Amino acid sequence: MVHGTLEVLLVGAKGLENTDFLCNMDPYALLKCRSQEQRSSIASGKGSNPEWNESFVFTVSDQATELVIKLMDSDSGTSDDFVGEATIPLEAVYTEGSIPPTVYNVVKGEHYCGEIKVGLTFTPEKIN
């Protein structure tokens, strides 16, 4: 079993469905790898094409087969709206070591609702 760190570069998203009817939405991302969850900053007023350029680090083993990124719209006063999600398989990053920023589909149910750009780097833990 391989252990190490997975660094996720959350670049941005494009063409997201706007869940706010009156103004641009304020999207943020929830990144989940097995039981670990992290949250990006809120791209205030960025609407359908947010950019984050933020990095997140997860401690993983190769039993973690996917990274799920949920895109949410931050709403003050009401609960945040679910925009869509992308599921990114991790098998390739374990073999390659790194995957440059790549575009993945964002879906809500079965419907395509935009794309997200994410880069991945896996650093195996050195065992002495």
Summarize the structure.
It contains one helix and eight strands.
Task: Please describe what this structure looks like.
By secondary structure, the chain is mostly beta strands. It has one domain: Sandwich (Immunoglobulin-like). 5% of the residues lie in helices and 59% in strands. The protein is built from one helix and eight strands. A four-stranded antiparallel β-sheet has the order 4-1-8-7. A four-stranded antiparallel β-sheet has the order 3-2-5-6. Strand 2 and strand 3 form a beta hairpin. The longest helix is centred in the last third of the chain and has 6 residues. The radius of gyration is 15 Å and the shape is elongated. It starts with a strand and ends with a strand. The model has no long low-confidence stretch (mean pLDDT 94).
Keywords:
metal-binding; Immunoglobulin-like; C2_dom; C2_domain_sf; calcium; four-stranded antiparallel sheet; C2 domain-containing protein; mainly beta; 128 residues
Structural class comes to: mainly beta
Secondary structure tally, helices:
1
Overall body shape:
elongated
Order of helices and strands: EEEEEEHEE
Mean pLDDT: 94
As a whole number of angstroms, the C-alpha radius of gyration is 15 Å
Question: Main sheet?
Answer: 4 strands, antiparallel
Distance between the termini: 15 Å
| Low-pLDDT runs | none
CATH architecture descriptor text:
Sandwich
The CATH superfamily turns out to be C2 domain
CATH top-level class: Mainly Beta
Number of strands: 8
CATH topology: Immunoglobulin-like
Strand order of the largest sheet: 4-1-8-7
- State the helicity in percent bands: under 10%
Overall tally of domains: 1
Provide the β-strand percentage band. Answer: over 45%
